[in-house]
Amino acid sequence: xxxxxxxxxxxxxxxxxxxxxxxxxxxxxxxxxxxxxxxxxxxxxxxxxxxxxxxxxxxxxxxxxxxxxxxxxxxxxxx
Length: 79
Prior knowledge:
This protein is mostly helical. Helices cover 63% and strands 0% of the residues.
């Protein structure tokens, strides 16, 4: 498993990819802001969930993807 820093970086990249660059990885990493407040749309959430599930082999729901920290915590518990 990756370190927390590596995992945070990868997930931030995945958010940027899921939003087609509308939300930048640096913005995700900058704080504990909710992803929706950064501009992640419902479509972006769905893409992010699909990508996380495919890469990490877990089942994820939207309530587990509210912020970067929540995603990291969820993966630590379930991956």
